[in-house]
Amino acid sequence: MSKFSKLGLRRAAGACAITAVAAIGLASMGSGNAAAAPLANGQKVVTGLDGESIKTSRTAESQFSVARVANNGLGRTALLSGTYAAQGSDGVNGKLSVKILAGCQIDVSGFSATTGGSLTVAPPSLTLSGGISLPIKPGEATIQDVSVTKKFKSGKGAAVQLSNFEIEFPNCGGYASARTIVVATGAKGYDINADDDTVTGEGTLLKSTLYGQPFFVS
User: Fold this and answer.
1) What are the extents of the domains in the chain?
2) With CB atoms counted within 10 Å of each terminal CB, which end of the chain scores lower, N or C?
């Protein structure tokens, strides 16, 4: 069984790298729940050379496009909800993160992100409300982290739950679309040294990327 140790892999900065801005009105969020469009569930299993594995899944995902108060066609906003999970086989430790892949047809400028709603950590899951505001030039797409990294241990799962998570395209003059990405990385004995970010483990280093169903933001 091979061993590995790699320097320079940085843990996701998560909530530490984002700035606080005001979230949209809670009244709009309440009406959004009733009209949320469901998105397809998904799951994926990756297996290493020595039989170790990581399973990632996406369940109860939905989105709701929110009408902007200005109603000038120069912005798009969606509320995203869902549960995103990862579990390793016996002996496999790792980390789970959720990202948003988004793009806009015409012009988006400015950048900010927020956890302006609520953030509650309660093993084995993490619930995150708030939102992101995306910096996209015409014809471009961007990938943005939406949560802190959640660790999972041998044979046990971890989950991140998004609740009315706001995705804002502040100056989007055309159509906008987005999808989630669930990323799980791990190995037998997987660990990250807090002092120098050294990653250690045995056997195969596994990385699973699970893409969600694309959706349009009107």
Assistant:
1) 3-217
2) N
CA atoms lying within 13 Å on the CB side of residue 158: 23
pLDDT in tens, the chain (218 residues): 566 666 544 443 333 222 222 233 333 334 444 478 999 999 999 999 999 999 999 999 999 988 665 555 567 788 999 999 999 999 999 999 999 998 877 554 543 444 443 333 334 444 555 677 766 665 677 888 887 789 999 988 999 999 999 888 877 767 788 999 999 999 999 998 877 778 899 999 999 999 999 999 87
3-state secondary structure of 105: coil
CA distance linking residue 202 with residue 50, whole number of Å: 10
DSSP state of 116: -
Angle CA 110–29–15, to nearest 5: 50
CA distance 175 to 68: 14
DSSP code at position 218: -
CA distance 98 to 126: 11
Q: Which residues are paired to 79 by β-bridges?
A: 64, 166
Q: What is the DSSP letter of 12?
A: P
**CATH architecture designation of domain 3-217:** Sandwich (2.60)
196 Ramachandran zone, left/alpha/beta (phi>0; psi -120 to 50): alpha
| Under 8 Å between Cβ of 43 and 130 | no
Backbone angles phi, psi at 167, to 5 degrees: -115, 115
